[in-house]
Amino acid sequence: MSPCSLQSKNSILFVLALGGFILGLTEFAMMPMLPLFSEAFSATPAQSSYAISAYALGVVVGAPVFMLLTANIRKRQALMLFVAMMLVFNGLGALAQTLEQLVLSRFLSGLPHGSYFGTAAIMAAEIAPRNKRVSYISKVFMGLTIATIIGVPLVTLIGQNLSWRYCLALVSFLSLLAFLLMFRLPNEPNKTRITLANELGVFKSGSVWSIIAMMIVGFGGIFCIYTYVADTILKHTQAPAYAVSIAMVMFGIGSTVGNVVLGKIGNRHPVRTTGVTLALAALFSLLYVFVSSSMVLLCVVVFFIGCTIGLAAIVQSLLMEAAPNGQAMIGAIVQCSFNTANAIGPWVGGIYIAAGGKIHETGYVAAILFAGGFVIWLPVQNCWLANRSPWLWSRVSQ
Predict the structure, then answer these.
(1) Whole-model pTM?
(2) Is-contact 100 295, C-beta < 8 A?
(3) For a Cys staple, 89 with which of 5, 108, 204, 312, CB 3.0–4.6 Å?
(4) Torsion angle defined by CA atoms of residues 75, 76, 82 and 83, in that order, rounded to the nearest 10 degrees
(5) Boundary-marking domain end, from 155, 170, 191
(6) CA distance 281 to 119
(7) What CATH number does residue 48 fall under?
(8) Cα torsion through 62, 63, 65, 67, rounded to 10
(9) Number of structural domains, the chain?
(10) Which residue range(s) make up the domain with 262?
């Protein structure tokens, strides 16, 4: 991509982050809406939860498919296609007359999620100076984290006081705004033609598999805490219901701070930053168990667990370095891994609770998952120290 001014780069990053903000609303704002879905469609909570599962399934299915289908079209055109899908499918959800129609619209809404973030991250990396790639990618994910602070509470308020349909309509409106703003994005042709063989070739790399495993296991700890923190507050901390919103906001602030801070540190020391963050997250998860009787201390711990989300940009950058000939597939892999972690964390935590564990003790489970990610990270770190894996460290060691 041709050089552009700092102001132009910031404009590009703003538009890309806006798309991330919309996807953050689409994914996270629906969780507080489950009781409203149950009321609207006379469904049980378990049946309403299909709307959440359907979205995650859409992400996993859509990410690799659409990244490959759009790999050889201009990135601006691909991003506009994904945002148009967000506009249409969320609009259909707002018009749903049955739970089945809503679940289908949620599945369709999830299809462009991974492809958007993957393509946006590649565009951000292309306009970034070599030593600021992680920071630029983190700014794309910043939209998602800001959605957890501002967007989700606002949309929840709209849903509770007006209708959940207005929430999906708002997402469609913002998608239209993003679509129009994307005409300001650069529209240069791709530098190289992408082939299916090159994209699938990324799976031949042991380094790629190691990073994927580290992400799935380690990030599982984040979602183990996030999923059960509400029940912990209500049943163990015994705080009022509004305290749950406070904890969610603290998590969102933490994820935003993590994106900024880890993005800057990760520019120079991506691997060390990853290992240290996983280790600290394991310690904070253990601390979560012992301080969860205090709402103040629990919020402090939840803030630091939220900071761990900042690793997403670093992992994206590491995978892009590991597989330079498979950028489209890498973008899909990150989102699939993220959503797999989103499934594994709550599932393992649920097994522990079903076996008789206390709700706040899910911090132990999260600590084990973070520690597992750290253990998987160790061989990667050792390869760097032994200088046996130049694919990743040539940039860092210079």
Answers:
(1) 0.76
(2) no
(3) 108
(4) 160
(5) 191
(6) 29
(7) 1.20.1250.20
(8) 140
(9) 2
(10) 194-398
